[in-house]
Each structure stands twice: as C-alpha cells, then as structure tokens.
Task: structure prediction
Amino acid sequence: MIEETAEKIRSMEIRGAGLIARAAASALKDFALNVEASGLEEFDRAMKQAAGVLLRTRPTAVSLANAVRMVIRHRAKDLDSARMEVIANAERFIERSLKAVERIGEIGSRRIREGDTILTHCNSTAALAVIERAFRDGKEIRVVATESRPRYQGHLTIKRLDEVGIPTELIVDSAVRSVIEDVDLVVVGADVITANGSLVNKIGTSQIALCAHEARKPFMVAAETYKFSPDTLMGELVEIEERGPEEVLENYREFKHLRVRNPAFDVTPHQYIDVICTEVGAIPPEMSYIIIKEWLGWEISDKEMQTSYFPEKL
Ligand code: RUB
Result:
C-alpha cells in the first residue's frame, strides 16, 4: 500500500500538494491498521520507515512532510493505543484538509468581483475552490488558464472549469504578459509558503507574478496552513524538484551538446504577493511566521523544533 501510493505520487498519477498530502495520510492510516508489530517500538520503527518511503517521492511539497509528521506523531504508551492514535491523526488530517479547501474557497472568493477575469496557473485544488465558489455565488466570471508545460496540468484545470461551466481561455505559458491587461487578478495555489512569505509553486508562477506586479494586478495565493514550511524558520532552503529531461524534449539523447533543464517549481518573492488565503483567514505574506507559530505550533526559539509540534492545532 505504501509503495503503491509512493509510486503514484512519483509518477504524478497523484499530484498537487493537497492531494499528495491526503494520499500519504490515507496510505499511512492503512499501513498503521495492518502492520504487524510485536510492540510499540517495532510499530514506531515501521511507521517511520513507511513515512520515509513517502517523503522521498517528491522533495518540494511541504504538505507531504507536514502530513506525515502530523499522522505518525503520537503520545501513546502501548501498541494498540499508538495504532489508534495514528489512525485518528490520519482521519483528522484528511477531514480538516478537505474542510480547509472549502473554507479557502469561501474566504478567497470574497476578493473576486462580478465580471472579473481571473488568471490561474497549473492545477490547484485550492485556487479552483476560490474560482468555483465565486461562480457558484452567482458572480459572472471568466478564467484564463495557462497550459503549464511541460506536464500540461492546465489541461486538468480547463477540463474542470468546463465541467463547472465557467467560460475559460487557454493560453501558452509565454502569453501571460500579452494578456495580463485583460485580467483582473491572478489566483494560484502553493506547494510551499516559506517563513518570510515567499511562495514556491509550479514553474512559471514567478514570471506571472512579475507580470501582474508590473501591470498592477492583484496576485492571490490559495494555500492551506499545512503548506507553510516550519523548516524554513531554521533557515532551511526549499529543495526545488528537478524532473527528467524527457518531459521537456523526448529525443534529447540525439543532441550531443545539449542539457535540458526541467525545474518543476520556482520561487515568487513575497513582495509580489498581495494576499495568501488560508482556511484561518486572508493574510499578507509577511504574516506567514504567525501561521507557522500559531497554527502549526513551531517556535523560532525552539532548539529541538520537533518537540513543539502540536498536530491537533491544524
Ligand atoms: C502542482 C502545483 C499546484 C500546487 C497546489 O504541481 O504546483 O499549484 O501543488 O495545488 P504538480 P493544490 O502538478 O507538479 O504536483 O492547491 O491542489 O494543493
């Protein structure tokens, strides 16, 4: 079960930071339910090993690491209670994660006005929740969606928007600056929000933010609180996943002097972000530390940060 889910995440059959986190929590729940262990120590060892397999699938999305930590952490003193606690943690994470997306839709959609044209990039459940909520509330809106090369996640976005009935235009990624004047605001999701409020999201996001900034168009990020990275508080840099060259150019081997680069994510500085809509409120990026401290339970002064982690605060 763990390996099966890990492979689906690796191959991107399961993708998008929120879905990855929920799939990992669900796999850990099944594993905790079925793993054979003679005692608490063996159970913990097996859980950690399973967590490691999941964590190694995709390096960037902090939602995965946050979900795994929240699920496997327990205070039980015996095997049966530990099993039950881990299962309950996983169920709670999944339930709260889904509720968070819904709440983000509610909060974020308040920033969308009647007649707005919204630009979105890649395929984000949280960003789509904002857009869909505005539409369901009766606002007449349009969407401009980028293809999001090389994996074309934009195609998933236009499919969903088409099902919902929202008029949408599809553009190539490089057309953003040409159309930005027709757009009223940008709404994107997040893989990671760092302690200083910067955003790590699908490659191309930072160019869009730059265009939006130049054109004075608001740039909104839709992100659950578990997309915020406690590790960045301690100066850790977010690892940007570099994927295979074949995703960009199939016959890359035919070239002798060519190196194809395929970074999957990029960093948008917090100066280009107007608002981050989370399930606990719409905050300026500068308030990210508060989310990490108050909602994820990590303190900058903690020597051993792991000890201050309160999963129940999510
Ligand atoms: C997906 C991506 C999404 C975020 C947020 O990248 O960058 O914008 O993960 O998505 P990939 P969500 O396709 O490489 O996983 O709001 O669904 O968590």
Remarks:
- Confidence is low (pLDDT under 50) at residues 303-314.
- The chain has ten helices and ten strands.
- The first helix runs from residue 2 to 10.
- The longest strand covers residues 142-146.
